[in-house]
Amino acid sequence: MKASYPEEAKKAGIDGPVILEVLIDSRGKVKDVQLVSGPGHGLNESAISALKQFEFLPAQKGADPVSVKIRYTYRFKLGVN
Fold this sequence. Notes:
This protein is α+β, with helices and mostly antiparallel strands. The chain has a single domain, classed as 2-Layer Sandwich (Fusion Protein Consisting Of Minor Coat Protein, Glycine Rich Linker, Tola, And A His Tag, Chain: A, Domain 2). The protein is 19% helix and 40% strand. It contains two helices and five strands. The protein has helices at residues 7-12, 43-51; strands at residues 16-24, 30-37, 59-61, 64-66, 68-76. The strands form two sheets. Strands 2-1-5 form a three-stranded antiparallel sheet, with helices on one face. Strands 3-4 form a two-stranded antiparallel ribbon.
């Protein structure tokens, strides 16, 4: 799912990366999202909301699927999102 670009950020000319820590369970489902840093103006919340809808391929240790925490960067760029 693509994050929506908040009108507040568009009007203010704000873009940039939102850096998140994401906990992904052994089925590839997003279980938790924590903000590390971001430009604000609604971009942080939009990125978090979109990421909660993502599904990942499960990480594996040997042949077994495992939970994992990753750092994910969602980039907002005016005129692109």
